[in-house]
Amino acid sequence: MRAWLQSVVRPQHAGIALLLAVNVCRAASTNCDGEPSRTEAPYTASCGGKSECMVNDVLEIRAVSDSIPRLTAVCLRLGIQGDVTIPMKVYEAGPGPQSPLSYPLAPQIERWLRDGYRETALRSAPRARLPVDVLLVNGAGAMYEASLTFDLSVLWTSGSMPLRVTDVRCDPCKFDGRVTLTVPELSTWKAVTNADPEKLTLLLDGVRVPTAIPVVSIAPDHSKLTFRLQRQLDKPDSVASWNSILKKALSDQPEFKVALANDKGLLTEAKPGGAFDVYDPSQRLFFVGLFAFFAVVAVITIGERTQWRWVRDSYGIPDNLVPDHLRSFSLGRSQMLWWTIVIAVAWFAIGFSTGDWMSINESCLILLGISVGTAVGAIVASPEKMNLLVKEYEERKATAKEKVGDAAAQAAWQAATAAIVNQKNIRSAGFVQDLVSDYGESAGLHRLQNLMFTAILGGWFLVVAFREGGMPTLSTTMLTLMGISGSAYVGFKMAGK
């Protein structure tokens, strides 16, 4: 039974329910034209004595006695509309009480399903119950009618008549939009299979959207399933699914296929599809580049007006010795500024491309946290030598003010001042030189390592966000690497000469 059910082809689009027949006799000698007699038929039609037939039953037609004229025509009239009858083959034997005419239904229904017009009639049966009129014509020319019902439940439960999606609409096709699927036979499928439509899963281009829960609207003529296009950042499976879907959409292929699945697997794939409302790659690149340009210009403008005081080292040096706008640039604070710009540009790229302006994820927060921790650690980890020099300067300064006329005290104060002012890398030697140079050294391997990892990861972060329409999710290994690199920078700074 299952083998022939699985051999059914997909239904064709048709709007009328035509009449179906078993063992069509194209050259029948007698037809079933005319009006059936209103008297009780001297024949019975049933499936094992039942008036409701399953698709794998055998239809039996018997005469109530042997004296009843033999049948010359048997016709089935199936469906809800139409008056045309189609004859079935009448065998030489019977019908009689002991020799009924028998018609296996399963092989015939298999053939009906291959006919798209006739499958429409099967699908249109309310609650999978199809009315059947059996027309019987005997040798005396009398016509009688018997009524049966076909139970088509097994066709739905076995998947021989899967759900159909006849229309796909988006409003709009971007994040926080909704995609609505028209599923005409949803009410029949629900009644027969006892399944919950709210547990159906949406698939876009074969990728399951795990957190999309449908809003179900079941009507006799047009049943609909509406899914909200929403990515839940706290659910890794949702993020991974949407990144896979949007990667194709943002690569100049916005069209997508739609399918429905349940917990057992795929149910149906819609012939109509949809298309995401996204800009083409060149347009996105232009606007994202424009945003990045203005972001950098804004940072430079603020930096020039404040003389970049907010990204320079401090070391607790008094301003009268080395003004804060002349001190060397801080690697930790510059790294913090870098990740702020990178995440801001990635956020704009995702929001502009997909409409998802809530894309900040856990990886973004951790990267910002690492950069803030590195900057704070760099401030706390002032070199011990510098701390001693500043302490000595304060002491010499206090002594010189107490002993104004004491030349030795004044000389000691000047010497303490010179010891600080003449320290290497206290004054800025240029942005790049300051970032690669540690206190008291011309260059530091730990700084170069931190710069390299930060620059490479930041560039990769932007590329992935632009291509996939989502913030990258960094692995624990990668986040640990950034944490170790930042810790190494702070540790070496603390251990500086």
- Measured as a percent range, the helix fraction is 40-55%
Helical/strand content category: alpha+beta
Q: Main β-sheet, in a few words? A: 5 strands, mixed
* Low-confidence segments: 1-30
Largest beta sheet: strand ordering: 2-8-7-4-5
Ends apart, CA distance between termini: 85 Å
| Tally of separate domains | 3
Mean pLDDT across all residues, rounded? 80
Q: Give the helix tally.
A: 14
| Extended strand count | 18
Cα radius of gyration in angstroms: 41 Å
Any overview of this molecule?
- With 497 residues, this protein is of the alpha+beta class.
- The chain has three domains: 2-157, Immunoglobulin-like, CATH 2.60.40; 167-275, no CATH class; 281-494, no CATH class.
- It has 14 helices and 18 strands.
- The chain has helices spanning 2-6, 106-114, 116-123, 153-157, 186-193, 236-249, 281-305, 331-354, 362-380, 384-402, 407-421, 431-436, 445-468, 476-494; strands at residues 43-46, 52-54, 58-63, 71-78, 86-88, 101-104, 129-138, 143-151, 167-170, 178-182, 201-204, 207-209, 215-217, 224-228, 255-256, 258-262, 265-269, 274-275.
- The chain has a five-stranded mixed sheet, with no helix packed on it. Strands 9-10-14-13 form a four-stranded antiparallel sheet, with no helix packed on it. Strands 12-11-16-17 form a four-stranded antiparallel sheet.
- Helix 8 (331-354) runs antiparallel to helix 9 (362-380), helix 8 runs parallel beside helix 13 (445-468) and helix 13 (445-468) packs antiparallel against helix 14 (476-494).
- It starts with a helix and ends with a helix.
